[in-house]
Amino acid sequence: MSSDDTGTNNARSMQQNVENCMKQVQEFVDTETTKSISLFSAKTRANEVWLQEITEKYSTIPDDELKKLDALKKDYLEKLGELTKKVEYFEQMCDELEEFQNELEIKTKVNTNRQSRMMEQ
């Protein structure tokens, strides 16, 4: 056998080994892909069953009713904002009245003292 024949045989043998290796890798990939697809399908079916159970057990609110609730919420928030402003205004007025009352109290005391001094004279 010549060296060319040996080289050709080695190349052919190596080619066959590579092809066998590729075939085994492809079989492995195909098997794992099939397992993954099967698992995904099983989980999808389980989720669909679970969704159906939940849908039957819990009813959802129709969209038009949700819109009404959102509108009510918006109205209540606006009214709450108005009430908050009014409360702040009345608190401010209360503070001013308290300040005015304190000033009147001081003026009344000063006036009373002045009158009692005038009476003493």
UniProtKB/TrEMBL annotation:
Keyword Secreted (UniProt): no
One GO location term (cellular component): endosome
BP term (GO), one: endosome organization
Signal sequence region: none
Any Pfam family: BLI1
Keyword Nucleotide-binding: no
Keywords associated with the record: Coiled coil, Endosome, Transport
Localization, UniProt: Endosome
Role according to the record: Component of the biogenesis of lysosome-related organelles complex-1 (BLOC-1) involved in endosomal cargo sorting.
Similarity remark: Belongs to the BLI1 family.
Protein name according to UniProt: Biogenesis of lysosome-related organelles complex 1 subunit BLI1
Source organism of this protein record: Naumovozyma castellii (Yeast)
Gene: NCAS0H02980
